[in-house]
Amino acid sequence: MRILIIEDDKEAASYLVKAFREAGHVADHASDGLDGYAMAEEGDYDVLVVDRMLPKLDGLSLIRSLREQRVETPVLILSALGQVDDRVKGLRAGGDDYLPKPYAFSELLARVEVLSRRRSSAPNAEPTVYRIADLELDRLSHRVTRSGQEIMLQPREFRLLEYLMKNANQVVTRTMLLEHVWDYHFDPQTNVIDVHVSRLRAKIDKGFDKPLIHTIRGAGYMVRVGQEGDEE
Amino acid sequence: MNASMSALGKLVRTTAFKLSFAYLLIFTIFAFVGLGYVAWNAQRLLTDQFVSTIESEINSLSDQYRFGGLRRLVNIVERRSRAPGAMLYLVTTEAGERVAGNVGALPTGVIGRTGQFETLYNRTDETEARPDMAIVRVYLLPGGFRLLVGRDIEERRRLQEVIYRAFGYSLLFIVVLGCVGGWFITRRVLKRVDDMTEITRHIMTGDLGGRLKIAGTGDELDRLAQNLNDMLDRIGELMRGMQEVSDNIAHDLKTPLTRLRNKADEALRTASTPDELKSALEATIEESDNLIRIFNALLMIARLEAGNAREGLADFDAAEAVRDVAELYDALADEAGVSLEVSVEDDLPIHGSRELLGQAMANLLDNALKYGSSAAAAAATISVSAHRRDGEVRIVVADRGPGIPESERGRVLERFVRLETARSRPGFGLGLSLAAAVARLHGGTLLLEDNQPGLRVILALPLKAVELPQPPLQSAA
Question: Is the Cβ pair A84, B324 closer than 8 Å?
C-alpha cells in the first residue's frame, strides 16, 4: 500500500513514515500543502494522511481542490482540534475519515488499512453475503449461520459482526466499532465495546474449535481464519 | 472664545439638550395650534352672534317701516340710537342723505352698497374722534329709503388682543418651563447614564467586581443595568472558571506528568533487561494516554462553556440517543452484575448535539456503574429514563450506590473534584463537569438528587418547540 503523509511537523512525519514502513507499506512525506497537493495529484497513492493545519495550503482546502480535480484517493484527516463540529467540517470537505491528535499509531494504521481496502474494492460492489471460513452473514435476509447452523443475533450484534466481517483480515479498533456500529465518536474509556465483542464471540465461536473473532493486543479486533498464538 | 464655543458644542451634542429641544419645539407647536384654534373659533362665534343680532334688528325695523311708515321708523331709530350701548343705526334717503340714526360719518360709497360688510364709522356725537370698525348691513326699504344697522366690533378686536397677548405669555411660559423641566428630567435620566458610563469605565480598567446601581424602579435603565450586571457576573464566572482550570491543570496535569517523568527516569537508571525497559515504556505510554484524556476532556468542557460549540447543533430525537447509549452500556452492566432498567418515552425532539448528549450519558452511566455497583447484589440496579415534563426532557440516571451527600452536590460538578470516597477508583473527576457543561450548552441543567439510597442525576433539557417531522416509513427493515 502506498501512503502519502502531508504533515508539517518533521518529527511527527518521520515517525509516521518509519512506522508505516515497519508495517510493510510504502510511505512518502510532503511538508506543506502545495507540495502535498502536487504529489497527491501525480503519485498513485492508496491513502492520503493529511494534517488539518498546513503551511501554504491548509488541509481542508487541499482536500477540496483534490476532489474538484477528481482525485478520489481516500483521505484521512489528522487534526489537533478534536471537536465534534470540526469532524463534520473535515468530512464535508471531502475527507473520508478523521482522527484527532494525539492518536495511537495502531488506531491510525487500522483506519488507513480500512480506507485503502475500500478503494481497491469497487464501490457498490459490496457482496450481499460475507463469508469467512464456515461463517456466513447475509446482509439482505439478516441471517447468520455457522456450519449451516443459524445463529440468532440482536440487531446491534448483527451490525457489529457485519462491520467486522466487512473488514475481515483487518484490524478494527474499538473507536472504529463505536463509530460505525453505534455512530458515536467519543473515546470509549471503559471496556464497553469489549463486552459487546465478547458477547458476540460467545455466540459465534463457542462450540467451534476454530475461533474467528480475534483480539489484537493493543489495537482492537480482527475477524479471520484463526492463527493460534494471537489470543490474549 | 474657542473654549466657550466647544463648551456650547458639547452642550448641543448631549442627549439632554437634544431631548429638551425637541420636546420644547413640539410643545410650542401644539400650544400654538391649540390657541390658534381657540382664537379662530371665538372670532367666528362672536361674528355669527353680531350678524344674527343685526339681522333680527333689520327685520324688526323693516316690519315697523312696513306697518308704520317712515315716521314710525325714524322715531324708533332715534329712540334706540340714544339708548346706552346702542347698536349703530342710520336711515337715509335714496341719495344718501341722513334722515335719522347715530352714525355720523361713513366712508363715501358705503351707504350705496347693500348687504353685509365691515367698515369704518364715526358716531354723530364724536365726529372728531378716530373712526372705529363696525360690521354693518345695509337694507333697501321699499320707497327708496336705506336702512343701515351695524355693530361696533371694537369688542372683537379687544378679544383678539387678549388672545395675542395670551399667545405671547404662553410662549414665554412654555419656553421657560420646557427648558427648566427638560433640564431637570433629562439631567436626572442622563445622570444615571453618566453614572453607568463612569462605573463601566471603572470596570473596564480592571475592577471586575464593580456592579451598576439598580434604582429599583424597574424602568429601561434598570433593566439595562440589570442585564449589564448579569453579563458582568457571567464574565466573572468565566474568568473564575478559566483561573480555576489553569490552576487545576497546573495541579492535576503536573501530578501525572511528574509520575510519567519519574517512571522514565527510573527505567533509565535501573532497568537492565529489554523486558523491564519494555514494560516501563508501556507504563509511560499508558500514563501519557491518561494525560491526553484529561486534556481532551478539559478542552471539551472549556469549549462547551465558551459556547462556541453551538454552530454544530441540530435537531435530533433524545429518546433514540438515550436508548442507544443505554443499549451500549447494557452489556457492561450485565457483566458487572447490575441490572439496567430503561424506560424511555417515544419521540423527544431536542435541539443540540446527539454526540455530546451521548458522551454526557456515557459519563453518567460510567459513574453509575463505577459507584452504583458496590451496593448489595440484590439492590444493584441502575435505572435510565427519559420523559417529557413541563416543556423539558428529563433524562434520569439513578443508581443504588452510596450517593453524594447533599453538602457535596454543588462541589462535585466542578472540575477535578473527586470525593474522598472515590479517590481509590479510576477517573479524573471530569465526568460530571462535562455532563453539566453539555446540559448548559443545550440550555438545560444538571441536577443531583438523593435516590434513597443512591444518586439520581437529572439532565433537564428544553424540548424543541416544534415537533420533529414524522420519519418516512422504512421500506425494508
Answer: no
